[in-house]
Write a structure and sequence with these properties.
The chain is of the alpha/beta class and 189 residues long. Helix content is 28%, strand content 32%. It starts with a strand and ends with a helix.
């Protein structure tokens, strides 16, 4: 089984999962996803992929409810953006612009962990940066376990005086990819 994933940012984010030429479009609306498909052969696999990417989504269904699946709801709450500690150091300018054009703060839910008494962002740095650039003050978050390297990333970020999302370095796409690959080699991923 071969799967590909595309994200399309708009009023409601759309995730397109293609598995063996079967396409599944998940339209995200807060903590719910409406799925459109022609063949339900891989619908459960596609749902698992989206659920893994977005744990805050707990309800999946088609418009006509011919497909419906519900999970335990993940507790979410709002946090002020300026108190969240990043675990990254630089961002892709192209991706920020892509997100920024269609940002919908009500649809953004980001994973955080509490490390050394502060909220640390685990993923979604580009989205958080775009929200901040649009003068949004609060963001929806949910608590998630962090991987063992996250405290090291936070330490490196703080050493570089990155203590909130506005302090991340925004790079052109090529430069971002270069630095990201160098960083991954350094940590042997």
């Amino acid at each position: 089984m071969k799967a590909s994933i595309d994200n399309i940012f708009g009023k409601n984010e759309k995730i397109i999962i293609t598995i063996d030429n079967n396409k599944y479009e998940f339209i995200i609306n807060k903590q719910e996803a409406i799925v459109e498909f022609l063949d339900n052969k891989y619908i459960i696999d596609a749902t698992k992929i989206v659920k893994n990417m977005y744990p805050h989504i707990y309800k999946f269904h088609s418009k006509d409810n011919s497909y419906y699946e519900e999970f335990d709801q993940v507790y979410s709450f709002k946090l002020p953006i300026n108190i969240i500690q990043p675990s990254k150091f630089f961002l892709n300018k192209d991706l920020i612009l892509k997100i920024d054009e269609n940002i919908n703060p009500d649809n953004i839910y980001l994973p955080v962990s509490i490390i050394n008494d502060e909220y640390v962002l685990l993923d979604g740095h580009h989205r958080l940066y775009a929200l901040n650039q649009n003068y949004i003050k609060m963001v929806n978050v949910y608590i998630k376990e962090y991987s063992k390297e996250i405290p090291d990333y936070v330490y490196i970020a703080k050493e570089g005086n990155i203590k909130n999302i506005s302090q991340l370095h925004v790079l052109e796409k090529d430069e971002y990819e270069k630095y990201w690959n160098e960083f991954l080699k350094q940590f042997e991923f």
